[in-house]
Amino acid sequence: MRASLIQMCVDPAESVNSRRTRAASLVRAQADSDLVVLPELWTVGAFAADLFATEAEALTGPTHEAMAAAARDAGVWLHAGSIVERAADGTLYNTSLVFSPDGQLAASYRKIHRFGFDQGEAVLLGAGDRAVTVGLPQTTLGLATCYDLRFPELFRQLVADGAQMLVVPAGWPARRRAHWSLLARARAVENQTYVLACGTAGTHADVEQAGHSVVVDPWGEVLAEAGPDEEVLTVDLDPAKVAKTRADFPVLRDRVLGLDVP
Ligand SMILES: O=C(O)CCC(=O)C(=O)O
């Protein structure tokens, strides 16, 4: 199974429309892959909170349209990263979209853990309330977004729901880059899953992005890591490695349930 992570540069000098067109052509160029992944809020930039309301779109809005066509043309599963979704009741969400190779929306996921430390998401957007997995012919994806990476209980839920490959689009800031790859590896090791973590590059809203998208195998080995700039990271994965890792070193079997702390 081949996966390509498109670490897009979010440059405020480029319009959202132009970036949408560029993202679609980058996806079309990955027709050799089975799964293509885009980052969190690559349309507006995760830290460009002033654009959230103006650029919000319906789930089936312009990004949906462009990404559905790109997935279909390339014949790939496409995790199209996330958009600012405007729901029917007017609430905004940070929502990820996953398309099947025939261009159908296979799943959407509203980010559960909103970020509020040095970014306005927690006050501007609503919170998702549902963990989402997506069945592919080769594997089962578990969906999470950026700040979610810090909350292992969501990943445990995804694994309980059958996830074998955790896909994490992000707009992670460079100033906390040390946490990024560490957390991606931790989620892979503790859940014995692949982790595909796809960030953005460039600087927007005066926040330098970390880049360094990373793919980690179920043993916690880094299979591939991007640099700081826009780049497509392509890697071959063996979905059978998840079951093999869990059989060879069966720590998930030894979990003690019911220890939830308040
Ligand atoms: O957790 C972090 O340090 C970054 C999170 C973030 O930037 C986000 O969720 O958009």
TrEMBL record:
Entries under InterPro entries matching the protein: C-N_Hydrolase (IPR003010), C-N_Hydrolase_sf (IPR036526), UPF0012_CS (IPR001110)
Any single Pfam family the record assigns to this protein: CN_hydrolase
Molecular function GO terms recorded: hydrolase activity
Coiled coil: none
Keywords for this protein: Hydrolase
CDD domains membership: nitrilase_5 (cd07583)
Membrane spanning stretches: none
Domain CN hydrolase: from-to ranges: 1-239
Highest taxon of the lineage: Bacteria
Family: Belongs to the carbon-nitrogen hydrolase superfamily. NIT1/NIT2 family.
UniProt protein name: Carbon-nitrogen family hydrolase
